[in-house]
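> example.struct
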């Protein structure tokens, strides 16, 4: 009976709007005023870590599609928006909320940590240090493939 009640509850709009806001952060960097505010916030290490862990995975998946379509920036940006809007919709739906939170925790915390540990432990990046993560220009240059 509890499952039937969960199916009848409508999707909550707040998680969907949060998903759209998180997914739109790469696009907001291009806006004049909002971009300056976000770049200013990215100097805070906690916001930088939040940004890195929320945008890294959808940006890399979108980048795979972008390489195939030869549109290097627009496709990952649009993919981030759609990806987080869908996740926000799942979190806002009572039936899928717990599964979506579990996916977000696993995918957006453990997967970037695995890549980070591989980058630190591999011999390919000889001069890698944690200071590079906090240097915002290098992080975005790497994300944009430059």
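> example.seq
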């Amino acid at each position: 009976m509890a499952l039937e009640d969960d199916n009848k509850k409508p999707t909550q709009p707040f998680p969907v709007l949060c998903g759209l806001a998180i997914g739109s952060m790469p696009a907001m960097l291009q806006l004049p005023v909002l971009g300056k505010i976000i770049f200013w916030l990215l100097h805070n290490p906690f916001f930088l870590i939040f940004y890195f862990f929320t945008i890294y995975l959808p940006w890399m998946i979108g980048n795979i599609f972008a390489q195939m379509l030869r549109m290097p920036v627009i496709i990952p940006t649009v993919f981030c928006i759609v990806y987080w809007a869908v996740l926000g919709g799942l979190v806002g739906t009572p039936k899928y909320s717990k599964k979506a939170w579990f996916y977000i925790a696993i995918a957006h915390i453990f997967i970037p940590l695995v890549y980070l540990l591989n980058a630190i432990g591999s011999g390919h990046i000889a001069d890698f240090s944690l200071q590079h993560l906090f240097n915002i220009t290098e992080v975005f240059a790497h994300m944009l493939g430059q």
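> remarks
The mean pLDDT is 78.
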